[in-house]
Specification:
alpha+beta, 33% strand, seven-stranded mixed beta sheet, 114 residues, 60s Ribosomal Protein L30, Chain: A
Length: 114
């Protein structure tokens, strides 16, 4: 059985199937913030969604990170490393991408165990 959360006409924020949680791309609600603020917002959204599924950041299986500008790489990594529990770094990819809104600096797609 597939369980979907916050289903819209275009996408769901999250789906859970066979003990795996799949999140849609998470972006900052306040795009006026710098990379640190936007990354913290994204990570908080990830925390909230994972909690709803009965998971956590300690159960990350894979993370894909999309950055608007690689000049933000160090700032994003600083916020990421402050958030991630020691010993739980997942496989991760970071790529430069044009994001859907010009004010967005970072988007993250997460897969986690439940």
């Amino acid at each position: 059985m597939v369980q979907r959360f916050d289903v819209g006409t275009r996408l769901s924020e999250m789906a859970v199937h066979n003990g795996v949680c799949y999140l849609a791309g998470q972006v900052a609600e306040d795009g006026s913030q710098d990379i640190t603020g936007q990354t913290q917002q994204v990570l908080a959204a990830i925390d909230a969604l994972l909690a709803r599924a009965g998971s956590s950041k300690a159960k990350l299986l894979r993370v894909e990170i999309f950055l608007k500008d690689f000049a933000d790489f160090a700032g994003m990594n600083a916020a990421w490393e402050a958030w991630l529990p020691a010993g739980h770094a997942p496989p991760r990819a970071t790529v430069k991408a044009e994001l859907a809104k010009p004010e967005w600096r970072v988007e993250m797609v997460v897969t986690a165990a439940v």
